[in-house]
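Batch job 17 of 40 flagged for manual review because the log was empty.
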Amino acid sequence: MRLLLVEDDVELAQSLVEQFRDLGYEVTHVADGLRGLDTALEQDFQAMVVDRMLPGMNGLELVKALRLKKSTPVIYLTTMSGIDDRVQGLEAGADDYLVKPFAIAELVARIRVMTRRIPPVESTLRAGTIEMDLLQRTVTRRGQPVDLLPQEFRLLEYLVRNVNRAVTRKMLLENVWDIHFDPNTSVVESHMSRLRARLNAGCDIDAIQTVRGVGYRLVELN
């Protein structure tokens, strides 16, 4: 399941990201409301976990704006526990409301209940001859298995979801590594090089293009 976490408490966010990933979820974290809205509109998520009090745009405004275009299930996390606060949150378009402090087990249970209300999401991604099984975490190209490490799998998944579109190094750092600053390392380049080597083994055409001055693009090849 792909989750978007919009939470400005860095310590809490790091803890939630780690616990969600341990449970097998793919998590994208952003720390302010405006970026949360942009990310939610640009990408597809099965559920969103949103703090009520956020910089840039608060949680109520975020969900109201989101509901104009998408019906992604949303649960609020907040210290605001009054009845009026809950009513405001639900009327803004949220599906559920959880007061801090909370147990991760309850949060996960509420997310599962929310996502049962929507049709099942795709378990397979395809881009030309590349096929990804998101449940089995396997990849094939032209029917041949491609063995990838977990981070390489996440990198390829992001490229496949953005097939034929150029993605920047900043986009990759934020969405694949959850890094929202430039670490001044070659982490993107080194992982991209290894992914290319594994994905293109036995093929005469590189499925991943380098877009000069921009980043990379996965192209849909036959």
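Reviewer: the log was empty due to a logging misconfiguration, but the result itself is present. The chain has a mean pLDDT of 88. Unflagging and moving on to job 18.
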